[in-house]
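The material for today's practical consists of a large collection of protein records. Getting from the letters to the tokens is the skill we practise here. To make this concrete, we reproduce a full record directly below:
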Amino acid sequence: SIGMSFRAIFVVVIVAVVGWSAYWWVNAGMRRDAVETWFAERQADGWVAEYGDLRVTGYPNRVDTILTDVALADPDSGWSWQGPRFEMLTLSYQPFEIIAVWPGQHMIASPYQRVSVEGEVLRASLAVSANGQFELDRARIEGRDVTIGSTAGWTVEVPELAVATQQPEDTPDPTRHRFGLTLTDATLSGDLRRQLDPRNLLPATIETVHVDALATFEAPVSLRTLERDPPPLAALDIADISAVWGQLDLRAQGDVVADARGFAEGRMNVRARNWEDMLALAVANGALDQSTAQAAQFGLRLLAAAGGDSNTLDAPLTFSDGVTRIGPLPLGEAPRLR
């Protein structure tokens, strides 16, 4: 009876191993087919879509897809990306939760310039729905000791970078995503500092940039829509946008929607410490013309004085009819959400 029990256990183990192995190989084959099909579809769309080698590995508990010498370019938008290695890592039993890793130096090109990105850590995690539409549930991008350099000559070094997005937990909806960004101690090269701060008013390091906002899109955000035609942004509910750079401290919150022309429409409450230095900086780097700044300065001084601290401005920033205004004063064109 002991021998029969042992043989039964042995048979069960063999069946389980064979079954799991068959599952893994089918899963790995589907992953390879999906990657090859995706690249073939991009090529059919007129893209440059190439890789040097494709491997699927990780047996028995992982299905890891590793691409080397990857090059993607969309001729319609003028954007391209190339890198020495790109990895998509999953557990065999959680195929819809993916970790992406891109070691080495990667090049991103736009119609304006080429930018290189390299970091000690550059990775992302994302979870998508299993309903065939691959709707994005959540995603997070992490970077550590990241260096971003441009062919224009400037570089930015960022010790810690985190970007995250997730459907609202209380009412999941693939058209709505809470977006967060945290960036600390970004050090600007001399070339970039001269572009942004030609009067040398500020230190080389931007201490913090933080964003917390709920974005509503006109269609569900999914891997399929992102790779073909990203859905337009319909509204932003901004809980916090803040930045600290030297003596400058800017914070804002509010709600905006896209008007018929795609411009932001709505209101944000802004708190700016040392706001006159911000105005001078905007003029110096060309973001605001001198005449507009001079016209606004007198009215903004009255608004700041009314708050009890002439160095700190608390004022509403409104967007309507394609124009940005702070209080009653026009500052220029409203930002575009589309």
The longest strand covers residues 114-128. Residues 256 and 266 are 4 Å apart (CA to CA). The mean pLDDT is 88.
